[in-house]
Write a structure and sequence with these properties.
Length: 217
């Protein structure tokens, strides 16, 4: 899927200052006051309130759901299965499953995610600029790189696969973005006209479908 942006498919680094504010220390004089009656109960109630707020803002079920879709890890599908999926969708990259699989092992990224991005971006090279660029992920070209309509162009599908894995490993995983929920908003930002939520759902659906052994999403 084509999208605008000066350098799409790269993470946006952000730095947040964490300067520590100075604290004045006051010397206490005289005897400390004893704890007031009921103060312990008030502290306990305050702790419960904080715990309740944390539960609301950090739903453990949602966090567990997000953690299921971590791109880092061993392959959850085989090279042969990848070939079956590509063939089922009549992809021009059919027969390249072993290359997609081997790159996943080399970069320690589960190839099921590369396959899912390939589906979302160009329906496995059957739509959009990927038909001319051999690109798995429609990555924006940088000055001096071979390009087509502003996107990186590769000499082969294998070259396109390898560059996608390198991008994810170096620009996302290396910066702590390892789940689909973390990666997609940067990879395909809403500012470029993308429906981020729909993109995330498609990736997760594809991953679940293939891990269950079904070919068609």
């Amino acid at each position: 899927m084509m999208r605008n942006g000066s350098y799409r498919r790269s993470s946006r680094s952000s730095s947040k200052g964490k300067g520590k504010g100075s604290r004045r220390r006051y010397r206490s004089y005289g005897r400390r006051k004893s704890q007031l009656p009921g103060q312990g109960l008030l502290l306990a109630l305050a702790a419960l309130a904080v715990a309740a707020l944390l539960w609301l803002f950090f739903d453990p079920v949602a966090l567990e759901e997000e953690g299921r879709y971590t791109v880092v890890g061993q392959p959850s599908v085989s090279a042969d299965f990848i070939d079956q999926v590509l063939a089922a969708y009549e992809s021009p990259a059919a027969g390249k499953g072993q290359a997609l699989y081997a790159d996943g092992i080399a970069y320690h990224i589960d190839p099921v995610y590369a396959l899912a991005f390939f589906l979302e971006e160009s329906r496995f090279g059957t739509a959009g600029v990927a038909r001319f660029t051999h690109s798995l992920g429609n990555i924006r070209a940088l000055p001096g790189q071979a390009s087509y309509a502003g996107y990186r162009r590769y000499a082969s599908w294998e070259e396109g696969f390898s560059d996608w894995y390198r991008l994810i490993a170096d620009e996302y995983v290396a910066r702590g973005l390892v789940t689909i929920d973390q990666i997609v908003p940067v990879y395909a930002p809403a500012a470029d006209g993308n429906d981020v939520a729909a993109y995330v759902r498609t990736i997760k659906l594809a991953v679940d479908t293939w891990r269950s052994g079904k070919l068609l999403v």
